[in-house]
Amino acid sequence: MTVKFLVMKRPMRYWVPGYDFSAEIIRVYGSSLRNKDFLIVSEKALAIALGHIYDESIIEESRITSLATSAVRELWGIIGARCRLGEGTITMLKSVPLELLTRHKQLSLSIGGLKHFLKPVSEAGIDTSNLPYSYVSLPLQTADEIADQIREEVSGKLGKKVSVLIQDTDKTFLLDGLDLGLATRPSKVKGIIDLGVVSYILGMCTHFFRAYPTPVAFSGPRIPLKLMLNIARAAESSRGWGAGRNVVEMTERFNSGFEGVTWHMLMRGNHFPVVIVRLRD
Asked: How is the chain classified by DSSP, letter by letter?
């Protein structure tokens, strides 16, 4: 049976470090939430608000990492089309200066190890888009606790029994008939395992898996993994990409250099860090 969803989204302010995101969620969605709704929250927006960001400009890249980064970029440039990498991803790999890419790879190696270093993009849950200067957002180590906190605050202030799903655009791949997701980044959700580049190759370079956004953490009554993945996909389709899907799109939009986007530029537009997904009868 096909499950149908109603997705609601409303623009919010850009969440700068220190922003009271729980109060913002209640302010924007308080009158719309119903019992059993799903609040889908962007991990990146939460990471920024909580200050889980890092300035890659302070990284001193090594010669070995630079050579390895160049090799990884060349490899994915060759096999990218065969592995269904989008044109935007291939363009980004070619466009980003090697020095900047090496810094990013060095950070991903220290956080996620070799299995994430070897990915072409979105290594270890580190995100470069929709952030200013040389900042990147880092994966939330306590995402499950944050999801619980949001759910408790919404319930306490509004008296609504909702579920909270923190998600990332990085891919999780599902093989039909199996209740097991192969993630390309860490996740706190039961039934999802992070195999890094192995998941990426299996999901992108074969035709056996369906791709979904990654549920990073979930707080609420237990639901089937496939339903959770479909809820994440519905939310992502509605939310859009903010200032761009990647750093190249972001710099093109603002007509800036790779490290020239500012906080003020990002705060000018509409953002949708939270959407509501409701199951339709």
From this structure: ----EEEEE--B----TT--HHHHHHHHHTTT--TT-EEEEEHHHHHHHTT-EEEGGG----HHHHHHHHHHHHHHHHHTTTTT--HHHHHHHHHS-HHHHHHHHHHHHHHH-HHHHTSSSSGGG-B-TT--TTEEE---TTHHHHHHHHHHHHHHHH----EEEEEEEEEEEEETT-S-EEESS---STTEEE-THHHHHHHHHSSSEEEEEEEEEEESS---HHHHHHHHHHHHHHH--TT-SSHHHHHHHHT--TT---HHHHHTS-B-SEEEEEE--
C-alpha 109/C-alpha 123 separation (Å) is 8
**What is the structure's pLDDT at 1?**
52
- Do residues 34 and 93 share a domain? no
Q: Which domain holds residue 77?
A: 54-137
The 3 state secondary structure assigned to 191-209 is CEEECCHHHHHHHHHCCCE
Please tell me the distance from the alpha carbon of residue 214 to that of residue 217, in angstroms, as a whole number.
9
Cross-strand bridge partners of residue 50: none
Same domain, 256 and 180: yes
**Final residue of a structural domain among 80, 102, 137:** 137
The tens digit of pLDDT for each residue in 139-181 reads: 999 999 999 999 999 999 999 999 999 999 999 999 877 889 9
pLDDT given for residue 243 in this prediction: 75
φ and ψ at 122, to 5 degrees? 55, 45
Residues 28 and 156 in one domain: yes
CA 204 to chain centre: 17
The Cα–Cα gap between 125 and 183 comes to: 10
- Are 28 and 67 contained in the same domain? no
Same domain? 75 vs 116: yes
